[in-house]
Amino acid sequence: WQTENGVLLPSLQSALPFLDLHGTPRLEFHQSVFDELREKLLERVSAIALEGKVEERYKKLEDLLEKSFSLVKMPSIQPVVMCVMKHLPKVPEKKLKLVMADKDLYKACAVEVKRQIWQDNQALFGDEVSPLLKQYILEKENILFSNDISVLHNFFSPSPKTRRQGEVVQKLTQMIGKNVKLYDMVLQFLRTLFLRTRNVHYCTLRAELLMSLHDLEISEICNVDPCHKFTWCLDACIREKFVDNKRARELQGFLDGVKKGQEQVLGDLSMILCDPFAINTLALSTIRHLQDLIAQDTLPRESPDLLLLLRMLSLGQGAWDMIDSQVFKEPKMEAELITKFLPMLMSFVVDDHTFNVDQKLPSEEKGPIPYPSTIPEAFTKFLQENRIACEIGLYYILHITKQRNKNTFLRLLPALVETFSDLAFSDIFLHLLTGNLTLLGDEFALEEFCTSLFDGFFLTACSRKENVHRHVLRLLLHLHHKVAPAKLESLQKALEPTKQSGEAVKELYNQLTEKLELRKPSPAEVTETPSMELPLPTVPTPASR
């Protein structure tokens, strides 16, 4: 039996006794020969997949699969069967069903085979994609609530290319490959989740996924996605954090080029413009444009570039409504936004310049001119009722905070208590605001500043919005040493978690309490303090004699 089933090489028969002398079992020898042959076979299968005419090579692989598939559950043969299936562009339906029905086989097969299973099985593909999407949202939220508060490294710091290297985007890109059907499925999942949750991070993933496929030059998908060139151009603007005139014209060309009957593409474009990274770029560019207009003595309505930025902001902010209603047309821009709100914003900048110039002039009898403290009622109304005005207003406040402009900040802060859909209490705005407030660190020692910021703004929402509670605790963890002790004590009481508070709030509050405990002087030091204040006898020093 051994002779009949062994390796039939005449020269081998005389060599085998050597192995016996070394105590090497025949099983070990045959196993190593088997492994070697399997490796050669795997190499050959990969070679067949690349050589000869297409029909011939696939015919060979199909024959090989037919012969070997019955052994697919044998661990030693399984890699060969899987390799053959991997190289077949279309595995026979019957075989795919058998693989799908067996959990272990499904787990073991290559992503190329899984793609063929997924494209006709949306539910199974959804089960694979769902954990990745959850992970992605969690990663974004962890960045927004990170304990590292910095004006230099914030949520928007990583470049688009760096973000696309993230684990989730890379995994999804690999799962999709060049399969347009799977790409469409992922986009459908993202639209559905965005509609269900209103979470804008799904819009970011929509753009990142397309650009990740663009990086790999997968033309099969990029050429059929009508948003590709628009997203590519916008991606370059996000990288620069500014929309320059040349790119603005390109973007306008794409928007104007939406033909009759193709309006549905506006739904996708709006989702790409709803990405927080796009909104951030458009809003920063708007603030820069407004400053330029002040320098040129020009009104907002006379600037086509500014009007285009507002048009894109409006399209991005209207994404949810558009996808929800399935009415694909650009939202109408309110004339008052351009004729009243933006000039009002520019007047704040002018007030600021005027005040600074006044301060430098020699003061006369009437004494120093106070900084304007009131805000027009119309400004507050715009922030409450107009989404675009609210977004631009919030970015203007971030801008002045970054410039350490305490006066304007305190003047406009009361307007943030009530804003459109509570945008001033959104995670992205609070993440950026807390970062910028570190630049005003020294102001936290002043009672007036702390009262306006904490009592007048943050604490108005802490009890009803847990995310605000978390952001205030993050800020205090970073700046507690700058706050006056009496104020810190009252804030500590006000921020104490309730029974309903989540674990994250409790954890942050405990961290803050620990930090404050460490700062308190020990009882021993306190009792010694009075003795230090006893008058010391004056001893003449050698120098004073």
From TrEMBL:
<protein>
    <submittedName>
        <fullName>NELFB factor</fullName>
    </submittedName>
</protein>
<dbReference type="GO" id="GO:0032021">
    <property type="term" value="C:NELF complex"/>
</dbReference>
<dbReference type="Pfam" id="PF06209">
    <property type="entry name" value="COBRA1"/>
</dbReference>
<dbReference type="InterPro" id="IPR010405">
    <property type="entry name" value="COBRA1"/>
</dbReference>
<feature type="region of interest" description="Disordered">
    <location>
        <begin position="519"/>
        <end position="545"/>
    </location>
</feature>
<dbReference type="GO" id="GO:0034244">
    <property type="term" value="P:negative regulation of transcription elongation by RNA polymerase II"/>
</dbReference>
